Amino acid sequence: MKGQLIRCGGNMDDTLFCHIIRVSNNNNKYIDSYCNDYIEDYYLVPINDVYMIFVRSELSKGVVNNKKSNKKELNTQTLYVTLGETTVILDKVTDYIHINVTSQTPNEITTNLFSQLSNQKQILVTFSSSKGVLFVHYLCRNGFITTSKIVCISNATCENGIFDSTKRKCQKCQDTNCAKCTYDNQIEICQKCDSPYDLYDNICMKHLNCKFSDGNTCIVCNDGYIIKNKVCVKLDGKCQIERNGLCELCDPIFSSLISISGECKSIENEIKHSAQSVVECNKGYISNSSFCNKCDLIQDNCDICESGHCTKCFSSFLISQNSKCESLTCDTINNTFKDQNGNCLPDITNCEIVVNKKCVKCIDNCILENDTCITNYNNTFCAVGTSLGCTRCINGFYYSYNTKTCERCNSNCQTCLSQSICLSCNEGMFLSDHVCKSNDELKDSCKKFSNTGSGCYQCNDGYYRNRVDCKRCDISCDTCLRASDCFTCNSTNFKDFSGNCKPQTSINGCAVQVTQNGCSICKPGYYSTNNECGICSNNCKECTLYNKCYSCQDDYILINNEYKIYS
Predict the structure, then answer these.
(1) Dist CA 26 CA 132 (whole Å)
(2) pLDDT per residue as tens digits for the range 286-310
(3) Would the pTM count as exceeding 0.70?
(4) 3-state helix, strand, coil in the chain (%, to 5)
(5) Which positions of the chain have pLDDT values less than 50?
(6) What is the largest CA-CA distance in the chain?
(7) Which residues contact 110 (CB under 8 A, 6 or more apart)?
(8) CA–CA separation, 63 and 84 (whole Å)
(9) Domain extents in the chain
(10) Whether CATH 1.10.1660 fits 493-565
(11) How far apart are CA 164 and CA 287, in angstroms?
(12) Are 429 and 440 in contact (CB under 8 A)?
């Protein structure tokens, strides 16, 4: 009490019970003030639905303390998991807890969950450890414990050496120059060697003439050596430029040599080469930049190739448009035939000519429809057909070049060129801009209907005739010949000299009422021009044009058609 440790129990032993109430920032938080992660001889007791705890072993010394433990033996009914020197009591755990183990060396795991848990209470314990947890003959990184077994999810490996399942610890490999190894059928296999040794046939050997190694193979050889079959070998004098153990440029004295994969080699059947690649090969061979291969190895059934393309095929084969060798004969068993491009294709019934896998001409007594040859004319709506296809459809249908069939016209059309272009209309309809319209649409615009009953031949005022249809005039017109070509203007407009209808209010200086014909008499100071009034020049009382004055304002006199101030 008051910060002092009080031990309870009849035997007054040194056993400590450290109760964990939560975990914060990867640290256990204890309800007991005397507990921390560095004390010895204690039991960890998670309570209050704690689902994860941390077990830290050998934090202070880095090794297990070998002194005799003063911990009191637990009651046989107590549930626990022991990891190394630390025991976790699970009596307060409801159903699940995760134990994160931090230690310098692997910890052995033991538990009595198998024998103590009843069917009424089930607990799942998961654990993880970077160094590994020891159980049975395994070193486990992650696993879990159930009421019946311990299961390892992922194995751990030793940082150096190998895990000895008998001694149950990490120890050095048998090969003293091996840094990391494993077992395969009870035989030790080295995985990585200590520097400056490299791995050859499971043996760590010192690599001669190697400048840099990754522990498995040499990466860079000493000057004057190149890597060949993972070994540094001396240059043969044929290399002019060498870098990092690889020949980049062969000596020009050896004109037939080329640097391939860091070695100077002579390439058979090559005609032309650069410093590091084959440019051109003999006929019958093709370059893959490193070697000259026979044409038929690169392209099936090719006999002669040039510039990477086949120019001649073996007998019974023909070069197709994509430069491939295709068979001259087709498979009659699978009912195939050769089209105009030389391709073997499945037979198209009743087809005489095929181009690009599509039928373009049928045999006699068949017509072509949608790339198919058919004999039943009644279902095609075709009036006149040939082996090349339909040339004319029956009334009410048109030929579609997209579907290559006779498609139905618009319901108002009698004949048509397409769905949107009518040529003639059904009774009671008239044709306007290739569209069939009902006569009812003309009742407000037509003055006299056609004797045939289809369309109008005289339109009401405010409309003009467009074939047998009536179109509305421009809003400024009373009557018109075309949309904007007014014959007479409406009551609020007048026709100017150009024949356009303009608002009567646009005329200034009119002495009388403006009519549809414009202004007939202008006010003093204005002159009449083309049914409109133009203003005279300043101080001019009457004029015939802007600068043609024949009467001046008071105090002015007229001299040579110009006004002067009278004084």
Answers:
(1) 19
(2) 777 777 878 877 678 888 877 667 8
(3) no
(4) 5, 50, 45
(5) 1-12, 59-68, 333, 567
(6) 149
(7) 81, 82, 135
(8) 11
(9) 16-156, 271-327, 336-408, 493-565
(10) no
(11) 55
(12) no
